[in-house]
Design goal:
Length: 720
């Protein structure tokens, strides 16, 4: 493969999507299908003493109501080393408001909804804690992350800064709702679900329902937005599967958005206390950082990972990162795009900005001078780092040199305050093993089956780019089969490792196929594309199978992938660490009377190694910036401390960025290959796109107004 930049290619699935042809999980229809509706608990904690289903059964069309009695008890935990236990099914014990307590099955959706509303619940109530500061919340420290000796180095610093920041509870709101359709036929269970991890879903449902995983298939051809909400097993899946098994009919559930707020994972409210010290030369030499977040009583989403990006942002040799869970009575938080760095780089990159002002330094130059090529956490080199290229190119495109440094010093003629802010971000670049099968047919079609999930990010487009760059095949009958446990062993697609998990394997398959063609033709020159060549020599097809592993992995990783295990390498590889980087430059304009914040333009330059699909990579960054705007200025879930639920649990009241909020987003890439990360030289992109952008917005608001706002979301009332 050459090292030339990849061509900009249209999305392979765009035409079907805009015509509404693409089938999402909720579009699937079967004869005799039943519609399901979950019944949420109306209390936040306690034990259900009775569940009365008679009223529901009298609704015309209701067929059956599943209650906790219809489910096996939870499986024995395999201990610390095993996979996380599947989510609970239906239980009498209530851990949070909105926990599903029954599933109503009916001939129509309307009857299922009416039946669900007719269920009566009785409880023995228990006291509960809804928010971090509630009485009864429990603080649980987790392991430290550190480099060097921060205490000693901080004592020697000539300038320090210390500040606290906060990021609110925020919920994912993919347009596609959580949905599962299950079919039980001939001793096999087939699940159609929007899942970023069909293999994990398969194992989880099998464990929850005591099935042999060999009889379970899970298919997730297209996802209407994942963002981590659809990564780990979802609570509704085993409920719907059990309903299909018990009734012998296909069952579909589309979880209403209001319920999703209450059962799905979310970005937890987190608090960050950051102290940074610099030496006389202006080099950051020490950081103390404590992070804590709200957590369910049993959840495992670790606050330690708030340190994964800050510890590697600059060449700070001495870093002490501490963290704690604050356990309360809500459902578990989890992965939501750029899960930890969204909040921690808001805090850390705000603090770096504060420090630059305190030192009277330009915030771009200050960052550039604190560059590093070492991961001080491990002492290993970084495999590639072009953050300074991002900062320099971003400053050039943005026109940073025209900035007047003093806060509040840039104004439009009508008094509108103008602020220019910068911030950077980094995110781990990881890689799962993969297994792929490529088959080229003489009839003009090609099939490539591998591991991956298409959630809108464009993985099929990236895979197709590799195949058509390397092989003379017809594109109109090119089928890329992913997100299907029957097609290839599937890793979970998350953590921005989707490209690394599919593209090096695809590149290897191309090479192997070229060798197979050469062997077949034995030097003969035959006219036409590969399909025509196969037809000429009377071969119906050629097929190759390849596997690929991450740095430091061996055949054990492939074996584990085949077994349905979870295996991913990085960002700490045996000899080096691999991170992706980005620099964001933001202009805000703040209206003098209404104090409304506008963001007319952003420049974002990323280092994600080689860019495989310029079209979809650019979209990833635009999406990340839009969400960072939304996270910085709009989104917060309102928790009701009296009853433990969420008040703004719909898209009318949970305010997100809209089209009118977003101006120009100019995206660029360094596009230099990482020499060590993988054979193709790519690094992850999806999440780093968002990292640091909320800080750049807050830093721009400070530059415009002189007001340092350390709590998200920043709203009009904070600028009055
Ligand atoms: Mo992502 S939040 O790791 O799907």
């Amino acid at each position: 493969m050459t090292a030339a930049p990849f061509n900009d290619r249209a999305r392979v699935d765009a035409y079907d999507k805009v015509r509404g042809v693409t089938q999402y999980a909720a579009d699937i229809q079967f004869p005799r299908m039943l519609y399901a509706m979950t019944v949420p608990s109306r209390v936040a904690k306690g034990r259900m003493t009775a569940i009365v289903t008679e009223g529901a059964m009298q609704v015309p069309g209701v067929v059956r109501v599943l209650t906790p009695a219809d489910f096996p008890p939870p499986p024995e935990s395999k201990g610390e080393d095993g996979p996380p236990p599947p989510p609970p099914t239906l239980e009498m014990e209530i851990a949070y408001r909105g926990q599903p307590i029954a599933l109503v099955l009916a001939e129509t959706l309307e009857a299922a909804v009416q039946g669900a509303e007719a269920i009566r619940q009785r409880f023995a109530y228990a006291p509960f804690s809804s928010v971090i500061d509630s009485q009864g919340s429990e603080r649980e420290p987790v392991e430290d992350w550190f480099a060097g000796n921060a205490e000693q180095a901080m004592a020697g610093a000539v300038t320090t800064i210390e500040a606290s920041y906060e990021s609110p509870t925020q919920h994912h709101n993919p347009i596609e709702l959580l949905t599962t359709t299950a079919v039980w036929a001939d001793g096999r269970l087939t699940i159609y679900e929007c899942s970023q991890g069909v293999n994990v879903t398969k194992g989880s449902v099998a464990a929850a329902l005591r099935l042999d995983p060999a009889v379970v298939d899970v298919k997730s051809a297209y996802i209407g937005g994942g963002f981590g909400q659809k990564g780990l097993p979802q609570r509704q899946t085993a409920l719907v599967a059990q309903a299909a098994i018990l009734t012998g009919r296909p069952v579909k559930l589309v979880t209403p958005r209001g319920q999703i707020f209450h059962v799905a994972t979310y970005r937890p409210n987190s608090r960050h206390k950051v102290q940074i010290g610099v030496d006389a030369s202006g080099k950051m030499i020490a950081a103390n950082y404590h992070a804590e977040h709200e957590q369910s009583r049993t959840g495992f989403f670790s606050p330690a990972e708030y340190h994964e990006s800050p510890i590697r942002m600059y060449g700070i040799e001495n870093y002490r990162g501490t963290a704690a869970n604050i356990r309360i009575d809500r459902q578990a938080p989890g992965y939501m795009r750029a899960p930890h760095p969204q909040a921690s780089c808001f805090a850390f990159e705000s603090a770096v900005d504060e420090l630059a002002y305190k030192l009277g330094r330009d915030p771009v130059a200050f960052r550039i001078e604190n560059d590093t090529q070492i991961d001080h956490k491990t002492g290993n080199p970084l495999s590639s780092r072009f953050l300074n290229d991002c900062l320099i190119e971003g400053a050039r495109r943005f026109g940073w040199e025209n900035r007047s440094a003093m806060p509040g010093s840039m104004k439009a003629a009508d008094g509108t305050q103008i602020g220019w802010g910068v911030a950077a971000g980094c995110y781990p670049s990881m890689m799962p093993p993969s297994i792929a099968t490529l088959r080229i047919n003489a009839n003009g079609s090609t099939r490539f089956a591998t591991s991956g999930h298409e959630m809108g990010q464009g993985i099929r487009t990236a895979i197709a780019a590799i195949l058509v760059e390397g092989l003379d095949i017809s594109t109109d009958k090119l089928e890329v089969v992913i997100g299907d446990t029957t097609a290839a062993p599937q890793h979970m697609t998350a953590g921005s490792w989707g490209t690394a998990g599919a593209i090096p394997g695809a590149a290897k398959a191309v090479e192997r196929m070229r060798a197979a063609v050469a062997e077949l033709l034995e030097g003969r020159q035959i006219a036409g594309n590969l399909h025509q060549q196969l037809a000429s020599v009377r071969r119906p097809f050629l097929q190759v199978e390849v596997s690929e592993v991450g740095p430091g992995q061996n055949a054990d990783a492939i074996a584990a992938l085949r077994q349905g295990g979870f295996v991913v390498a990085g960002p700490e590889y045996p000899e080096f660490t691999t991170m992706s980087y980005i620099a964001h430059f933001v202009e805000v304009r703040i209206e003098p009377r209404t104090r409304r914040i506008r963001m007319p333009r952003v420049v974002s330059i990323a280092d994600c190694g080689r860019v495989i699909s310029p079209r979809t990579a650019g979209s990833q960054i635009r999406g990340g910036v839009v969400w960072a705007f939304s996270a910085a200025l709009r989104e917060a879930t309102e928790i009701d401390p009296r009853f433990g639920g969420y008040l703004n649990n719909d898209l009318a009241d949970y305010v997100i960025a809209v089209n009118a909020d977003i101006g120009e987003i100019d995206v660029g890439f360094v596009d230099k290959p990482d020499p060590l990360a993988n054979s193709v030289g790519l690094k992850g992109l999806g999440e780093v796109a968002m990292v640091g952008a909320s800080a750049a917005i807050a830093n721009a608001v400070f530059h415009a107004t002189g007001k340092r706002l350390r709590e998200l979301p920043i709203r009009i009332e904070h600028l009055l």
